[in-house]
Amino acid sequence: MFGREYRLRCCGCGALFDDDGVRLDCALPHAPALLRTVYPSLRLDPGDERSMARFGRWLPRGRDLPTTARTAVFPSAHLGRHLGLRRLWLAFNGWWPERGATLATATFKELEAVAVLGRLAPSERRTLVVASAGNTAAAFAAIATENELPVLIVIPLEAWDPLAALVRLGPSVRVVAIDDGTYEDAIALAQRFAAREGYVAEGGVRNVGRRDGMGTIVLSAVEEIGTLPGVYVQAVGSGAGALAAHEAALRIITDGRFGTRLPRMLLGQNAPFTPIHDAWTRGAATLSEPDADARERLSRIAATVLGNPSPPYATSGGVRDALAASDGSTYAISNDEMAAAMLAFAELEGIDVEPAAGVAIATLARAAREGRVDPEEIVLLNITGGGRARRPAVTQPQAPAHVVGRAHLDRAADLVGTI
Questions:
Q1: What is the rounded distance in angstroms from the CA atom of residue 258 to the CA atom of residue 251?
Q2: Residue 136, by phi and psi: left (phi above 0), alpha (psi -120 to 50) or beta?
Q3: Strand order in the sheet with 379-383
Q4: Cα(70)–Cα(57) distance, rounded to whole angstroms?
Q5: Degrees (nearest 5) of the Cα angle 209, 213, 218?
Q6: Which residues are 400's β-sheet partners?
Q7: What is the pLDDT of residues 280-311, one digit of tens each?
Q8: Is the distance from CB of 389 to CB of 352 less than 8 angstroms?
Q9: What is the per-residue pLDDT for 1?
């Protein structure tokens, strides 16, 4: 059994808490604020494991969860030259074992799932409830199946076929799919399930396991490059990955051996649904309230996993704070730009990437084209998913535990007793 030497600190009021493996929020009354882990070790001190587990001293572990999940970090072979960037590094999160990337579900969400499930106490018996637009569902389904941990996943129905083709679900994993549903619908229904006895909310970006798991991407990069990058590029929906990178960089700076400046964040969103970009470019303190056309705009983005309508933008410790602290910028990337970037990456670097990664590549391409990135800067481009074409598809028939109509969501939580 692991002793939890780390603690959780509120970004709003600074209060410290012991971790029970599922705490998501500060217990004191104030405006929304994220929790962050505070580890006793102030130095990047990797272990001997050839996986994300090598960074266990900076992971919120409650149990020993074996994993082979690993990010590959290496200099760009051809994309950097194509963009006029001489020091472009790729953090490839997906399935490319020849390069050292061993994320079997082909996305960085696997790093989240390993850390969140590993954060749970050994005595935790409740079913973890996870809402997803697609990639997170696949990651949690795979890791929970492998470790026989009880997880209930809520997704839009359109996310089912990609999930079922990628992961053979075990009996510990159940999926509820919402016909004609959105990610926002999945979040709302998951909250209703999690309120029932015997269930507990995973919490999304509020879960420190998610952010610290993905934070290993930056830790891997610093270990490989020898310093913090000057620029960090990623596509964002909830912003959890960007916050993970930001928080990991803060820990690296505290170490003192790898640089003293935060990487400047360049964050891309898929137009026409760009709530973070819209708020940041307007200089707004908060996100705009969803308008009547929001659902229609959301339906038009090709990178559907980026369609989060309520990211923690104004939350203390959230996306706005990270952009401000890093002198960051945001970009709105069209479907055409995204598709062109995906094709260019496959031709230049030799592997397929997911649409969200295409948004990130297009973000960097535009920033470079506009002269917003110095050709000599060290740039870290987070390829959040790739190599799926190399994974054999699951051919056995599978079906969700339940499919519910969007019009019946208010009554859907009554399904708890039957799933």
A1: 10
A2: alpha
A3: 72-75, 88-92, 379-383, 231-235, 264-270, 329-333
A4: 16
A5: 140
A6: none
A7: 999 999 998 878 888 899 999 999 999 998 99
A8: yes
A9: 40
